[in-house]
Design goal:
Strand content of chain A: 5-15%
CATH class of chain B: Alpha Beta
Strand order of the largest sheet of chain A: 2-1-3-4
Largest interface: A-B, 26 and 31 residues
Oligomer: heterodimer
Strand content of chain B: 15-25%
Number of domains of chain A: 2
Largest sheet of chain A: 4 strands, mixed
CATH topology of chain B: Rossmann fold
Number of helices of chain A: 14
Structural class of chain B: alpha/beta
Structural class of chain A: mainly alpha
Radius of gyration of chain B: 18 Å
CATH superfamily of chain B: P-loop containing nucleotide triphosphate hydrolases
């Protein structure tokens, strides 16, 4: 058992003697928190809305003013033909075009109904849906108001309706940064776990130093654990540092228990590093390790639910996500940080990553060969 | 140490040992024995199969067929036990260059379970003997090649193995350094440690008690340097080697 202490001592000395390590430890989380969190936003603001008012009546002017009042839209008024509006969308000068046809107000007063045309640039489907929905809401509420006025219903008996008053829990201001920051920290922790540890092992193969170790009675699992611990330590340090940066720069709340997060993250890192070390056990060069790890990392990130909700993926993809380590930790970290969930609130995730980790660790130890 | 187990017979026993890589036979039915305390040389041109053979003896490579025993342990099923009883110095310098001299000793002392006090005492002794006391806390990477090789050799002996395997230990250094390196080897042999050394320097072959000459995976000659020189009627091992090579053609 003492052997492993000597191995750990060696690994820690080597890792921290490497001059590139300090910048990696402190610059990576800074860049991620201060650039990526701001950049990776799906909040919709300043959607370019063009209003083509061919009616120029009182009603259309009032409705247009409603659009303008919202911070959601950046509004331009224009008198355009339908082919010109097509061009606006095509060239990306406008995301949304609302056209009030001639006689809009007249139709409304005479027939009690009028049509308005809405064109949406739907290349980004979810943004399109959101801005359309928002537009519909504005029009809808205007509709009720105008109907009430036209029908002359007295103010004290408002038309009956069900109104929904949402109450947003855990992230009441719907602050997108709060949602992204913990997820992005998962990527940081993953990169450290997956890349640094596996590159470190395969580098010993390249240097030939591993041969000297393999000719000793060293235990394989001792060696593998020795390769993990320094990076587990660095990753947890970076997680803490990243959360602090997020708290200082954009007030990310931390509702959970930091120890809960450490337990989950350590189990997760055990899993991720086992995967990385398995890859390096079957590789001979750093290049091979990088290539394979990159491939998996990108698949894992895109499927993780960091940017797109897992629930909207096809069912088979959701099932596939059960072997995606990032899927687990991103859910976990958001719940711990934003909801304050504890270990017992996520027993399913806890059990999954623990057993998955043990399986991958066994695989890595088994596949690591002390023979050439 | 489990020396007792091998005390009765030869320390290395190899019979009809074969290693194949696909269709290529790197080691082709070799048979030999090495006695305790012997300096046994393995000679041959590059690619003759020396390194493959030594790797099998060290438990770094599983044999394809044949029998192999080192220090009384089987080369198929007891490789980890073999490893506890041998030292190994590879062709390529393989100490940690980003650790200091002392840290390398501490690491390997720890791996072989040498008690702390004993380890510290032995490290100091060794460094004194090698005149490397001043380099104790220097990174190994910055030392001259000759020093590195002496260090690697001392480290291979650090846990007092029964046999030490040296794979072309003195490649790339000048004759004088090589000479002092061989002084270390003699000293170890004098203390009863069996030395198994591969080389392609024929002058080094003269220093061995017995040599086996390998060519294309086979052992083509095995005897003491004197007997070989007599048999091939030449003055030096160089001559022996050239004659054997010519006979093959």
């Amino acid at each position: 058992m003492r052997t492993i202490l000597y191995l750990l001592q060696k690994e820690f000395i080597q890792v921290f003697r490497n001059k590139a390590m300090l910048p990696i430890i402190f610059i990576m989380p800074l860049v991620q928190m201060l650039i990526l969190v701001y950049a990776a936003t799906m909040e919709l603001k300043k959607v370019d809305l063009t209003v083509v008012d061919l009616d120029l009546s009182e009603t259309t002017t009032r409705l247009t003013a409603k659009f303008e009042a919202s911070s959601f839209f950046h509004l331009t008024r224009a008198q355009l033909s339908s082919s010109e509006t097509d061009q606006m969308l095509l060239k990306g000068k406008s995301d949304l075009v609302v056209t009030f046809p001639q006689g809009f107000e007249k139709d409304l007063k005479r027939n009690n109904e009028a049509t308005v045309q809405i064109l949406v640039d739907a290349i980004n489907g979810s943004a399109a849906e959101l801005s359309n929905a928002y537009l519909q809401t504005v029009i809808g509420s205007f509709n009720q108001k105008i109907r009430a006025e036209m029908m002359g219903v007295p103010k004290f008996t408002p038309p009956q309706q069900v109104s929904v008053i949402p109450s947003y829990w855990y992230n009441p201001e719907l602050n997108f940064k709060f949602y992204m920051a913990p997820g992005i920290l998962v990527i940081l922790v993953t990169i450290i776990g997956l890349f640094l540890s596996s590159l470190n092992l395969v580098r010993e193969k390249e240097m030939g130093t591993i041969e000297q170790l393999n000719v000793t009675p060293i235990k394989k699992y001792h060696f593998i654990i020795g390769k993990m611990m320094p990076f587990l330590f660095i990753a947890l340090l970076d997680l803490t540092f990243g959360l602090l940066v997020a708290k200082i720069f954009f007030g990310l709340p931390f509702r959970g228990n930091i120890l809960t997060l450490y337990v989950f993250t350590s189990l997760y890192l055990f899993l991720v590093m086992s995967i990385g070390l398995f890859v390096s056990a079957i590789s001979d060069t750093q290049q091979q390790v990088l290539f394979v790890s990159f491939f998996f990392l990108i698949v894992f990130i895109i499927m993780s639910g960091l940017f797109t909700p897992v629930e909207s993926m096809p069912v088979w993809a959701q099932n596939l996500d059960k072997i995606n380590p990032l899927y687990y930790l991103i859910r976990i970290i958001r719940n711990v940080v934003l909801k304050g969930s504890g270990l017992l609130d996520m027993t399913r995730e806890l059990i999954s990553i623990t057993f998955y980790g043990l399986a991958m660790f066994s695989l890595a130890v088994w596949r690591y060969r002390k023979t050439v | 140490m489990k020396e007792t187990k091998a005390a009765t017979g030869p320390i290395i026993q190899v019979k009809e040992l074969v290693k194949q890589f696909g269709a290529f036979t790197a080691v082709d039915h070799i048979t030999f024995e090495v006695q305790k305390g012997e300096i046994f040389g393995f000679l041959g041109a590059n690619g003759a199969g020396k390194t493959t053979a030594i790797r099998m003896l060290c438990g770094l490579l599983e044999p394809t067929s044949g029998a192999l025993q080192v220090a009384g342990y089987d080369g198929y099923h007891q490789r980890e036990a073999i490893k506890r009883n041998i030292g190994y110095m590879s062709q390529k310098f393989s100490l940690y260059e980003d650790l200091t001299v002392y840290e390398n000793f501490r690491l390997y002392g720890g791996i072989y379970d040498i008690p702390r006090k004993e380890r510290i005492r032995k490290t100091d002794e060794l460094l004194k003997k090698l005149h490397l006391e001043e380099s104790r806390d220097k990174l190994v990477g910055g030392l001259p090649l000759g020093w590195k090789q002496k260090l690697a050799f001392s480290l291979a002996l650090f846990h007092q193995p029964a046999v030490v395997f040296l794979d072309e230990p003195s490649g790339g250094v000048d004759p004088l350094t090589r000479r002092t390196f061989w002084d270390l080897i003699y000293e170890a042999a004098h203390h009863g440690i069996t030395i198994f050394v591969t080389t392609h320097y024929m002058d080094e072959a003269e220093y061995c008690n017995r040599v086996a000459i390998m060519s294309e995976g086979k052992i083509v000659a095995l005897d003491t340097p004197a007997a070989l020189k007599a048999k091939y009627q030449t003055e030096s091992m160089d001559g022996v080697f050239l004659k054997i090579a010519r006979n093959k053609e």
